[in-house]
Predict the 3D structure of the following.
Amino acid sequence: MAEKTVNVMIVGVGGQGTLLASRILGNLTTASGYDVKISEVHGMAQRGGSVVTYVRYGHGVAEPIVEEGQADVLIAFERLEALRYAHFLKKDGHIIVNDQRIDPMTVVTGACEYPENIIEELSKKYDVTALDAMAEAEKLGNTRVFNTIILGVVATKMEFDKEVWIETIKNVVPPKTVDLNVKAFEVGYSL
Amino acid sequence: MSKKQIMLGNQAIARGAYEAGVTVSSAYPGTPSTEISENIAKYDEVYAEWAPNEKVAMEVVVGASMAGARALCSMKMVGVNVAADPLYSCSYIGVKGGIVLVAADDPGIYSSQNEQDSRMVARAAMVPVLEPSDSDEARLFTKLAFEYSEKYDTPIMLRTTTRLSHSQGMVNLEERVEHESTPYERNMRKNVMMPACAIERHKVVEKRLKDMAEDANTMPINKVEYKDTKIGVISSGIPYQYVKEVLPEASVLKLGLVNPLPRKLIEEFASKVDTLYIVEELEPVIEEQVKSWGIKCIGKEIFTVQGEYSANMLRKAILGEEVDISEPADAPNRPPILCPGCPHRATFSVLKKLKIHAAGDIGCYTLGAVAPLDVIDTTVCMGASISMLHGMEKAKGKEFIKNWVAVIGDSTFLHTGVNSLMNMVYNKATGTVIILDNSTTGMTGHQDHAATGKTLKGEPTYAIDIYNLCKAMGIENVYEVDAFDQKKLEETVKTEVARDAVSVIIAKSPCALLKEYVPKGKCVVDDEKCRRCGACLVLGCPAITKKDGHIVIDETMCNGCGLCQSKCPFEAISLVKAGE
């Protein structure tokens, strides 16, 4: 078991479903005997804005947020958001990034440009795993489970057994979607 | 075996109220307080409702308490202002069954119009305040608050902040203990706040606070943790967690009761430490009192009154440690935006075309203030759009507002907009009010309200008819228009702003995030017909983007509202209907 508190961040675009991922992580860590704190964003930012969720687990977690330079794992549902929060990572931190582009309104209106080569640039500084979760989800016939596919990849970078992940997913997702989500997790896990 | 569950702070508050035997809960949604009501509604033993506004919710709770029940009222901090009138009087009256008012502050302004500190309101109303630091304390302190409420015959404020309300942590679950409802007794001197009674009750309130302050010195929720005495910190709430993170070896006085303060306990603590810091987010509420007692301490000289605190911030301010962090990347901002298929966008696109200014209100539609819509000129508070339009007319004359409207959501209209509209009718206004009726309270996550036909518990109920409500005020010109019927909406707006009488246009179309919403299909661009003019981009729809110079509609986001189709001058956008 991890001695120190482990810091995970889940970032993305409001409406992408980052809250489900944090719920799964919360249940996963507590089922493994850790204390955990999860801090979420609700309200106005959920309307297509940049959203961030902090998950901290260990033995006696005080602060509910992860600060710059402290994250062990950064899970990004969109690549610009990976770039925005990369400086929250520790020097040897992992990024798992969904290689998807969602233009913010500042880019649509022409006020800013969407940065090029984000994944290449991040790879120079961090341990980056990129995947096209939307394409994988389409193969499964349901783009909604792209976030569970991402979690499958995340699972390969964290300490918890695959069986514990699957058990947790079964407990957290809506009963009707259990099979699909487990399948999606397996896809991510074997990428 | 004791049961444990991971819970949001707000969920834990609901759990605490449930365990305390609460039977009545009333609230109006508002970030970050909304989930308290949504969770308490799940307990069959509790009657829980959405009230049209916080003042009503507070009064419902005062009534329930007088009738003998334990009652809970929850709201965001600006809602406390709306509820202030009954709160101040309730403080004089006291309680029969315990009353807990949850005030959810928003340091850092994640989803609010200001950054006020509810502890200041509580002090002005002479109401005690409890402040938990994590989810389990949120549950426990809610229960304690009901005990204190009855013991000291006072409403209690439970203060939370966004970071506590929206953080999950482990919670120990205990059984519910039913509160024995006492028989109703008439008590005119206590319950009728007219001058003779209020003068006497004010004396009681002053004594009550003094008594509680004395007792606070030995209350177990005010905890002293003596360790190294070089540094001593007084803190409460979420900032306490940052203190523990940064100064694990320091002595800490953790206040659970932040009003009234335990003077003796603080004096004793201060005398035992070399340097005393007071770490509290927002206003120096604790600090100013401690300083007024002649105690030397450091507070807002080095800590900000703005935004949320963090461990790194304290590290720098107290220990002088610079944290080595790499520069953030230059990433374009991603501000929140109206969703694809949002009916507000449809209304705003008409207003933009007609170059009409809008006095705005509180809701998702506040986002109409920013590029590329740029339609809303003002946002003040719930209901203010209508009254401000009226004020503008009275200041500058009716010609001035011929290119103005007030825009307000359905839930906000029922909250306090109704009164403002009454004022327009009464005082001979000529303005035009657009009610953006999307059949829900959108911004806070889709709560029902008096005009949706469903209660908080999910039961069907009478739906107040906004059209007839306006008619009943004597307004002749009330129109219901589908927000996506752009031609009709445009004509109606043009006619009504020109009219020398009050008009109401109900721009009706459901929120695209509602469960009942049925997408019409997907819009697609014919790249050959498209001249890249950008008329569709001006709508600010997140589904429409430019890729390598070509206009593309993201089919996973689009739900075929057809607004872009109606704006395209080259008929390059077509709607593929669902199922085709």
The mean pLDDT of chain B is 96. Chain B touches chain A through 57 residues (CB under 8 Å). The radius of gyration of chain B is 27 Å. Residues 317 and 569 of chain B are 58 Å apart (CA to CA).
